[in-house]
Amino acid sequence: MSVSDNSPEAPDVAAIEARKNLRYYLDQAFYYTTMIFALALAVVLAWIIIQIGITALPAISRFGLDFLASTTWDPVRNIYGILPQIYGTLVSAIIGLVVAVPLGLGIAVFLSEDFLPTYVSTPITFAIELLAAIPSVVIGLWGIFVLIPFLRPFYAFLRQYLGWIPLFGTEPRGNSLLTLGLVLAFMILPLITSISRGTLVSLPPHLRQGAMALGATRWETILRVLIPAGFSGIVGSIMLALGRAMGETMAAAMLVGNANRINISILQPGSTIASLIASQFGEAGRDQVAALLYAGLILMILTLIVNILAEMIIKKFQNVER
User: Fold this and answer.
1) pLDDT 10s per residue in the chain (322 long)?
2) Helices (H) and strands (E) in the chain, counts
3) Are 132 and 281 in contact (CB under 8 A)?
4) Which of 203, 238, 273, 314 could form an SS bridge with 232, CB 3.0 to 4.6 Å?
5) Cα-trace Rg, the chain
6) Cα–Cα dist 251/86, whole Å
7) Residue in 200, 158, 193 with CA at minimum distance from that of residue 176
8) Could you say which DSSP state residue 213 is in?
9) Distance CA 211, CA 190 (A)
10) Helices 118-131 and 177-201, interaxial angle, to 10°?
């Protein structure tokens, strides 16, 4: 029996071709649109770097690399150097990572491995992600009026019992590198937790099932299988958090103390590159603006180095995972 072309079961070849063509054109439109946005973003970034470089050129030509090694910041004599700020930026960011990485990774494991029922873990996850939306100026005020008074007994304890360690060898001050580091840890915690949790949740289920089938306990599965499998994502979250901590501005300006000196004790005030720019840019003259933008350029380079290292580490461990 022959089948008529007009029967209801016959495929509509023209409609199928039309849908294929429409899908093709939509894919092409999406591809070129996203490519244009990506290129535009790169152009904007290059334009920002060029403009900062042009404005900072007088300071670059005058101070050169001595700008990185000098501890003098004297707008009256137009002599500038940012070694204390580089030191403060790195030390406060490292303190933030030391506190936030184990805490954030622990929370990510706790929320991703069925320790809690879904109706409890979901609101907790949502609340942690909401912490990232709090403005840094609000966190700075919280640090001044709540955290510093709360930490004073803890700082006194460190000074009294661990004062033989140079890191705690001076009388504690409220505004200090340690205070800023703890606040930075609070600020980068949602970033580490969210990305690490997303990495662990997206791992293939057969990894857990295979480890359990071989007799591994839950913690053996987490520590020996899941965390190594998601290591590239976890490292990526840590590196992104490090970049975030190094570039934090308002909270740093409010909590670090803005002292232009290098002190081995983290209980003393210090300064960061971002806090230096935030606190002096509004009243700076022409030469000082050039020096501040030179400092900003150094901060961008440091952040770029962190991101490049992150990409290298992630690619290395992705190759191992394959």
Assistant:
1) 444 455 555 667 788 888 888 888 899 999 999 999 999 999 998 898 888 888 888 888 888 888 888 888 888 888 888 899 999 999 999 999 999 999 999 998 888 877 777 888 788 888 887 887 888 889 889 988 999 999 889 988 888 888 888 888 888 888 889 999 999 998 999 889 988 888 888 888 888 888 888 877 888 888 888 888 888 888 888 888 888 888 888 888 888 888 888 888 888 888 888 888 888 887 778 888 888 989 988 988 888 888 888 778 777 766 555 5
2) 14, 2
3) no
4) 314
5) 26
6) 17
7) 158
8) H
9) 29
10) 140
DSSP 285: -
Say if CB 312 and CB 294 are below 8 A apart. no
Q: DSSP characters for 143-159?
A: IIIIIHHHHHHHHHHHH
- pLDDT digit string (tens) for 263-318? 888 888 888 888 888 888 877 788 888 889 899 889 888 888 888 887 787 777 66
* Residues contacting residue 251 through CB under 8 Å, at least 6 positions apart: 136, 137, 139, 140, 143, 180, 183, 184, 187
Element holding 80 (H helix, E strand): strand 79-80
The pair of structure tokens assigned to 35 is: 């490519």
Rounded Cα distance, 114 and 109, in Å: 9
Let me know: does 136 contact 187? Beta carbons within 8 Å: yes
Element (H, E) at 74: strand 73-74
pTM for this entry: 0.82
Chain centroid to CA 56: how far?
26
Contact (CB, 8 A) for 193 and 275: no
Is residue 261 within 8 A of residue 283, CB to CB? The reply is no
* Cα of 154 vs its chain's centroid, Å: 27
Among the listed residues 175, 134, 153, 310, the one whose alpha carbon sits nearest the alpha carbon of residue 234: 310
